[in-house]
Amino acid sequence: MTAEIVEFPALRDAQGKLDARRKSLADILTEAGPDYDMSKVKSIAGDTAAKVAEIGKLNAEIDDCKKKVDELLVVARAAAEAKQHEEHTERGSEPGSMPGRETKGGQQRKSFADLLMDSVAVKEFRGSAGPSATLDIELKTLFETGAGGGAGWDPFDPRTGRIEYMATRPAPHVVNVIPQTTTGFSTVKYMEETTLTNAAAEATEGNAYGESALALTEKSSEVRKIATFLPVTDEVFEDEARARSYVENRLPFLLQQRLDSQCLVGNGTAPNLRGTENVSGINTQALGADPIPDAIYKAMRQIRDTGFAEPSHVFIRPSKWESVRLLRTADGMYIWGNPSEAGPERIWGVPVIQTTAPTATKAVLGDYTNFSELAVRRGVDVQVSNSHSSYFVEGKLALRADVRVALIHYRPSAFAVVTGL
User: Fold this and answer.
1) Whose CB among 62, 269, 329, 363 lies 3.0–4.6 Å from 349's, allowing a Cys bridge?
2) How far, in Å, CA of 62 to CA of 28, rounded?
3) Residue 414's CB: how many other CB atoms inside 10 A?
4) pLDDT tens digits, residue range 75-122?
């Protein structure tokens, strides 16, 4: 149980109510067995329909309780931060953000295209081969167009304006749930408590006190770069207005999609980020003979038991969530909602995010809200040049973009993977 829960009675009560309802649902599913035979469930009266309805009611109550806990956690953390700020102020400490992080004002962000077109890279680009000039020369030579090469004028058939993008994983999904900060350094360093020996005990008069022990170890996460470049011709931005919005959509998307994947599966070997799946010390729960909901529940229990944290999100592939959504009782009733309904995108009260970012055989979950951070050293940086390869003589530009970030998992035991899906 976290300190916030202990010191905040309303939060403690809400968490207790949530845990009780989760246990009730787990007990019902255990009674039903791996085949979800509702005739084996004796804790609920009635036929299969009545029992499934009760399970649906419990799921709804779990969702409500979880939302209440999340709301109270925000209040508890705000109260704790306010108290900490007050204590720092009383001691004469300098209030503000953590060392190595910068904060930005509430100024409205410009779009990527505006930033690109206003950038020094575009405004001052003149090539690298010397002065240039533009000559407007009247064209007097007769030209002919027409189908089959003959003289004439082809009919004008305008495009619809729609661009059909390639089928690819949307982004961002993972990055959206990770708290984002800024840093001014190449490495984000922080202190981790690596020794906590609690020898506090009752003592009789005249006898020695038990000796406790504390130790802190410096931890760090390196800033890594995700980068790409896009070749374009000189005429693209001059002649085709829609090319600007197209690049605005796709170039940042390419970076975001890669970053999304790195946050879960990056192996940590430079220049890769270290994604959740490869963080040392996270919890692991094998699927084994369990249904997926049971295995996820056991992983959540490990997070609570060993990480003293509350899972905030579950990442799972659509193909694996399908088996959860289609779970049926032994006599054919759907457990996760009728096919005519969208069904809950939550499991045990925790939001489920369907994405192909995690490894195909794994589900990834954890308390991303409280124990993860994406520290941005620099947002998307764009540079333009024709000095790449033979681009100068070919009339091409290289539009280069990159972003530099560090990913931190502060408490590895607050995360888990379910394997063998």
Assistant:
1) 62
2) 14
3) 28
4) 887 777 777 667 666 655 444 343 444 444 555 666 666 666 676 666
CA dist 192 → 39, 148, 333 (Å): 51, 74, 49
Contacts of 120 (CB under 8 A, 6+ apart): none
Domains by residue range for the chain, with CATH: 111-124+166-196+213-317+355-421 (3.30.2400.10)
pTM, two decimals, is 0.75
Chain length of the chain: 421
For 109-144, what is each residue's pLDDT tens digit? 666 666 666 766 666 665 554 454 554 555 554 445
Query: pLDDT by residue (tens digit) across 162-185?
Result: 777 788 888 778 999 999 999 999
